[in-house]
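Re: the request from the purification team.
They wanted to know what the chain is likely to look like in 3D before they choose a buffer screen. I agreed to run a prediction and write the result into the notebook, where they can find it.
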Amino acid sequence: MSKVREEFGLTDLMIKALGEPDELRVNPYYKSAPPMRLYSRARIKQWIEENSAMIAAQQGRKRGAQKSVETKRQKAKVVIARAVACLRMRTLVSREQLEKSANSFYMKTYDNYGGLTERGLCSYIRHKHTNYERILVLLKGKVGADDLYEAVKIYLCCRIIRAYNLQIHPMKAADIWDSSADTPFSQEELDRVEADMACQLGLGTIG
């Protein structure tokens, strides 16, 4: 049946409408699996020709649904882009003050707190000194929220790293690991990641 789906683009309901298969064969890969259901090409092509109007209608509905999802995704992107573009950071304070307040927060929050790191400091600033939490509220329930969330988090880390001169790669600061996270931190790398995330969020195209 998988070959029928791949080669002819039929859905499970369409395959069911074909009726019983022309042949049943033992699955050569998994003996415990149900038998393979085989249909002749001639029969499939004839069925497609006889039901072309119904197939076209279903494909049209599928395209409409996909378009609707993409429209919602783009609307969500605009909402989040506007919120990120209005990123608010509290008045910059000294690193010493930040470390003191961050240490105090983490010691009260975690029993096994092992000391402040650059990632921990960036996370503290993101949650306590920006409107990040408000942006998360806007993201909730939006189509494509997972992808947007990652981009927002990394972008805000870039802004924080730049503002507070932290020495950490933004991907590591966001706790999102990929091959670029192993790239040594540099101003050029920070610029590149920030530009990539801004592009993903559409920050240069919002109205």
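For the purification team: Residues 52-85 form the longest helix (34 residues).
Please add any questions underneath this entry.
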